[in-house]
Write a structure and sequence with these properties.
By secondary structure, the protein is mainly β. It contains no helices and 17 strands.
Length: about 190
C-alpha cells in the first residue's frame, strides 16, 4: 500500500489550458504528465468570469461545485445547470463547453479521465467511509472542510488537503464535514 498526503498549501496556481483562469492540480497519472498525456487528472479551479472551457480530446470530465452558487454549462449546445454544491456533474471534455456563472465566482473540483482507458467514480461523502482501492487503480480523497482524519494512516486533513492511495485500502476516512472521494480504475 502506498499513501501520499497532498497538502493544499503545496499546490501552485497554474493557468488553464486555454488561459482563461487558474487551476491547482491535486494529482495526475502518470505523475508529471502534461495536459495532453494524462490518464487522469484531478484539480481545483477558480472561476471568476464567464467563458469557454478548454477542450480535451478523448477525455471525460466530472465537475463538482465546492464553493459559490454554480454555473450554467452549455455543453455541445445543451444547457446543464450546475447549481447544487457537492453534486458531481459528468460531461464529455471534447464537447464545446461554455460556462456562465450564476451569481459570482465559484471553485470547481474537476476530475478528468481518458475515455476507454480509465474510469473514475466521484462521490461526495460525509461521516465515515472506508476508502477502497480497485485492483491496479487508486483512490483519492479530498477534505472539503477542516476536520477529516484518515484513521488507517493516522493523517489529519485540513480543507482541500488530499490523500492518494494505491495498493490496498488506506483505512477509514472520518469527516466532520464533507469530503470528495474519487475511485480510479483501468478499463
Amino acid at each position: 500500500m502506498t499513501v501520499r498526503v497532498l497538502r493544499a498549501a503545496d499546490r501552485a496556481a497554474l493557468p488553464w489550458k486555454n488561459g482563461g483562469g487558474v487551476t491547482r492540480e491535486i494529482a495526475v497519472s502518470p505523475e508529471g504528465a502534461g495536459m495532453d498525456a494524462f490518464d487522469w487528472r484531478i484539480s481545483l479551479a477558480d472561476v471568476g468570469a464567464d467563458g469557454p472551457f478548454s477542450a480535451f480530446s478523448g477525455i471525460d470530465r466530472t465537475l463538482t461545485v465546492v464553493e459559490g452558487a454554480g454555473m450554467d454549462l452549455m455543453v455541445g449546445g445543451e444547457h446543464h445547470i450546475v447549481d447544487e454544491q457537492y453534486w458531481p456533474h459528468d460531461f464529455p471534455g471534447d464537447s464545446e463547453t461554455y460556462g456562465s456563472l450564476l451569481d459570482g465566482p465559484v471553485v470547481n473540483f474537476n476530475v478528468m479521465y481518458r475515455r476507454g482507458h480509465t474510469e473514475a467514480e466521484t462521490a461526495v461523502v460525509r461521516g465515515t467511509v472506508r476508502l477502497m482501492v480497485p485492483e491496479g487503480g487508486a483512490v483519492l480523497a479530498v477534505a472539503l472542510e477542516d476536520g477529516a482524519v484518515l484513521e488507517g494512516a493516522d493523517v489529519e486533513l485540513g480543507r482541500y488537503d488530499a490523500v492518494l492511495a494505491t495498493g490496498e485500502s488506506p483505512g477509514v476516512l472520518r469527516t466532520q464535514g464533507f469530503a470528495v472521494v474519487v475511485t480510479l480504475s483501468s478499463e
